Structures
1.
Amino acid sequence: MSLRLGDIAPNFKAKTSIGEINFHEYLGDSWGILFSHPADFTPVCTTELGRTAALQEAFAKRNVKVLALSVDGVESHHQWIADINETQHVTVGFPIIADEDKAVANAYDMIHPNASETFTVRSLFIIGPDKKIKLTLTYPASTGRNFVEVLRVIDSLQLTANYSVATPANWIEGEDVIVVPAITTADALVKFPKGVKVIKPYLRYTPQPNK
Ligand code: BEZ
């Protein structure tokens, strides 16, 4: 059965481009992103890993550790990383898991047989410091992911984990947020001293509380 939001992200030991890791130990108290690729030396994947590497500081600032995965081996990963660094003008510093026996891909349901019997689709899991799955994305091989959107989602997840707010459509860091329905407007006015704008009784905005 596929993994759902709130499930514990399965732990695993795996060979990676930076050596063997125990996933949960590697994450420690950080947030995590685990994302899969159809194969090494493929063009869309090369750009995706390049974009991720270019955003390494942005992920680190948010206390997020990134791990990529494909079903190719470590030696192949090393050769591919050299290509990514050369063509995308980056230095890939995050591990790429060598999931040759597909153990991780199967645990995370990353192979969708009606798309491909052998290759992983573009799955992405965001995992909280409690090791629970906070978000999943699944893209086909032909569509590269938007890693600025992944950062935006992390900003929302980290904010809403700590405050009784939700983020509206297309929200970005710094914009007003929504007061969750569970809070009365009277309580919201106490909780959010910057003010509460009531558009409808169920649609209430407040300035981002941690800014
Ligand atoms: C790619 O990563 O470029 C790719 C992989 C499989 C099918 C299509 C594109």
2.
Amino acid sequence: MGLSITSINGQKVRFGAGLRNDICSELSELSSTKALILSTPQQVDMAMELATMIGDRASGVFTRATMHTPVDVTEEAVEHAQSVQADSVVAIGGGSTIGLSKAISLRTGLPQVAIPTTYAGSEATPILGQTDKGIKTTLTDANVLPRVILYDPELVASLPPSMTVTSALNAVAHAAEALYAKDRTEETTALAINGLKAFAEGLPTVVENPNDLKAREETQRGAWACGTVLGLVGMALHHKLCHTLGGSFNLPHAETHAIVLPHAIAYNAVSVPDLLAPVSDSLGGSKPGQALWEFAIAMGAPLALKDLGLSEDDLDRATEITLKNPYWNPRSVTADGVRALLQNAWAGNAPSV
Ligand code: NAD
């Protein structure tokens, strides 16, 4: 059931409707007889269905995964995993659940199987963001990469329409920034373009018919390509802005990415129009930022940071934080430039360049 590939980062990756039913064969390949299943409180039903399917090979479920991987939750989960003598972890969910799985694996060495239910792409990266006492730090460690990914389109079909769109644009953001990454290669550019095309072609069908499993699988292939490329190259201004808005103003992850993306890409397109041409080639139109803006409107994405609860008074501080630690970006990052970009994203205006 489902095509199996070995990813360029060494993961076993499979795509196919109903693939979650094959979990036992994956656990047996990992010699696991006591898998701990992880989910958020909102996805307990999915976790319980999986636990029932796994039967004797399941050592239990831990359903308290939460956004930004708080260390206290991880410590509780590690204690739970040790108390039931778990010998693997299975994450069924989005970036929050997969983040918990990676954090457990970092501390225990347990192998992971990821069953993603959003497009965020964490399952394909060696990156782990963790929060301790309100401060989020990010590390990269090959040991936190899940050994197996099972992309089952039946599971992502239950993602609510608004989250489908914002999560897809979160994935598109990884590909867009990979196109101009300083450490890009021909291989990473090809992956980014594949990811962009998969969403350009698959997302409109998914929005029209959320249960179209063929289109859902196409978008999951896009999520895999976008996630993999995120793990292979460095990101720039767009991810820095979203990290600032999420970390310091507590804005929701996928929605923030969806709103900021056209503006950040329009900003950088001034310096690297040729590198960003695949964005407009995939989505239509001549300017990459404008193309993303029109795609976001057509997909019904949120457009204004003010609608996420950010106050206009916060824009100066957000600009300051974004400029605090210098980082590489294809266009120089100026206070005026970032402030104007944020103003447009806050108000829901079209990108200005
Ligand atoms: P999420 O995992 O926080 O999920 C959001 C909500 O949607 C949760 O309540 C979840 O239970 C629910 N949900 C998920 N899939 C569902 C489905 N199919 N049906 C119904 N409900 C569903 O959201 P996310 O955007 O996937 O992940 C965000 C987190 O992942 C952030 O903390 C972000 O920093 C992290 N992330 C990490 C990486 C990385 O490489 N380390 C990459 C991307 C995102």
